[in-house]
Amino acid sequence: MLLASDAFCALLRRDHPLAGEPSVTVGDLDDDPFLLSRGGCERHIRRLYRSARVPFAPAHRVREMGTLLAMVRAGVGVSIVPDLAGSMLDGDLTLVPVRPRRTRRLVLAAAPDADPAAAALLAAARGRTVGPDPARSGGRAGAPIDAGRNVGAAQ
Question: Where is this region: Disordered (predicted)?
Answer without folding.
Answer: 129-155
